[in-house]
Known about the structure:
mainly alpha, elongated, 78% helix
Amino acid sequence: MESSKTHSVTYDGKDALATLVAEFLGGKVTDAQAKIAVEKVIEEATPRRRHELQQFIRDLGILLAVVPAHWRRDIMVKVAVKIKAKQEKRARQRAFRRQYPALRHSRMLSIANWFFCEDEVTNIFVPAVSDYLLEYRRALKEGGRWKAFVVKVRHWHAFLDACGLEKWGKVYTWIQRLSALVIWIWHKLHSGS
Length: 193
């Protein structure tokens, strides 16, 4: 009678990488075909790239060594699915940034992306931020830096309201009072004196 050790499944780092490639390609190739392609890439790579790939495969094999053999492929399939989902999300974000080039480096949208889902950012924050940018640029042209500062304070206040940060209590009330004071002073300075 043969022991189970002789029939143990060997699934090393190269197999894991092949599974990632096969799953990433959406099942267009089998694991065996992907493994052949991985070996070919390693053979044709520059010495430095070959060394990097071999280290990656070794490290992947070490990581998988602690996992039971029958779970290794399933884990790599899940990793591939997560990588694909992340890349799809990044592609949607890149398309969104190309659609609104003026909003690419907006701090408001960066903050909103941390706390809210993509649909809420698109439907709620993009119109608010685009209005802010248009009004801010117009204020810079018409009235200079102080008018633009007041517009900035007002829109950041509206942004914080949209985020629901008014629940912060006393800190938020003081910020609100301070912004009202700044607006009042600005109006007093520019009202005809």
